[in-house]
Amino acid sequence: MKNKTLIIAEAGVNHNGDINLAKQLIDVAAEAGADFVKFQTFKADKLVSKDAKKADYQAKNLNDGDQSQYNMLKKLELSEEQHHELLQYSNSKGIKFLSTGFDEESVDFLDQLGIELFKIPSGEITNLPYLKHIAKKSKPVILSTGMATLSEIEAALSVIEEAALNADVTVLHCNTEYPTPMQDVNLKAMNTIGDAFKVKVGYSDHTLGIEVPIAAVALGALVIEKHFTTDRNLPGPDHKASLEPEELKAMVSAIRNIEKALAGTGKKKPSASEAKNRNIARKSIHVKKEIHSGEFFSLENLVMQRPGDGISPMDLPLVLGRKSTKDLPAGEKLNWSFIHD
């Protein structure tokens, strides 16, 4: 995390309750070069009441006539055995396994599973007991802030910092609409959060496409989280706002290129790769039309042309009004020896 952006490929519930599809998602994330593949750990009985309704985007994407959020989530649970299987499979593919726990029991299970950090989803930012429980695990925390105000972020950070000495927290700017309209991204808010609380920042993206997370990295994001799927046309609440495999790969590649572009010293000087082009691209003073020995140099008989390995046009004031030491044909590149002292 010190020298590169941490990229979390958010599989979430896009496995549709199918362990084989979950493994395909791991394959996609590993192939794309993401650092983590992340799922979601919950029990529907603990997460929602039987009366909870689906969000508008969930109802629209599923279009199954069932408004129950509980029924939807019940089908998307992963068992403990499946978690172990997916962890082992992730390890075999060379990508780190991560999951968001939505209640204290799920957090305990993930801790026992050995995950190296905890991701707090936007919906839990006001869940005081949950925040304390995670903080006491004394592992790095990534906090998403969709739907939150600065005061709510401040309150959540206070809870975490009071419960854990020297808490390692990265705060992600986020908009909890799937997909997020571009006009609602408000990407500058990411750095507003960083400036306000002196914390590391990142961005959890729900827009269509890959432009915004790439822009976030250019603005200083240390963590990027992005939903992905094997196929946007699959049934499920999040597929429509997710990247497909080639898009995820393109996003990771672009972010890695942005990291290289940002890795310079900040000093403005010619790079090793461009230095060879200086004389090719720049100009020097040339003879525009034939000049006789003893003739004065003037704007009428001189011209600025490539290559730039002669007298620089910046030295033109030192040349004008002086005499030529010899006859010079048109096109000749001026040399200091051609100029009388």
Short note summarizing the structure:
It contains 14 helices and ten strands. The protein is of the alpha/beta class. The strands form two sheets. The protein has an eight-stranded parallel beta sheet with strand order 3-2-1-8-7-6-5-4.
Give the tags:
alpha/beta; 10 strands; 36% helix; 341 residues; 8-stranded parallel sheet
Task: Tell me what you see in this structure.
By secondary structure, the protein is of the alpha/beta class. The chain is built from 14 helices and 10 strands. It has helices spanning 19-32, 44-47, 56-62, 69-74, 80-92, 104-113, 128-135, 150-163, 189-197, 211-218, 245-262, 272-275, 278-281, 316-319, and strands at residues 6-12, 36-41, 96-101, 118-120, 141-144, 169-174, 200-205, 223-227, 284-287, 302-305. Helix 1 packs parallel to helix 5, helix 7 (128-135) packs across helix 8 (150-163) and helix 10 (211-218) runs parallel beside helix 11. It is elongated. The N and C termini lie far apart (61 Å). The mean pLDDT is 95.
Oligomer: single chain
Order of helices and strands: EHEHHHHEHEHEHEHEHEHHHEEH
- The global form is elongated
Unreliable parts: none
Q: Report the C-alpha radius of gyration, rounded.
A: 30 Å
Please report the total strand number as a whole number: 10
Number of contiguous helices: 14
What is the helical fraction, as a range of percent?
25-40%
Query: Could you tell me how far the N terminus lies from the C terminus, measured between alpha carbons in angstroms?
Result: 61 Å
Q: Describe the strand arrangement of the main beta sheet, using strand numbers.
A: 3-2-1-8-7-6-5-4
Structural class: alpha/beta
Query: What proportion of the residues form beta strands (DSSP E)?
Result: 5-15%
Largest sheet: 8 strands, parallel
**Overall mean pLDDT score?**
95
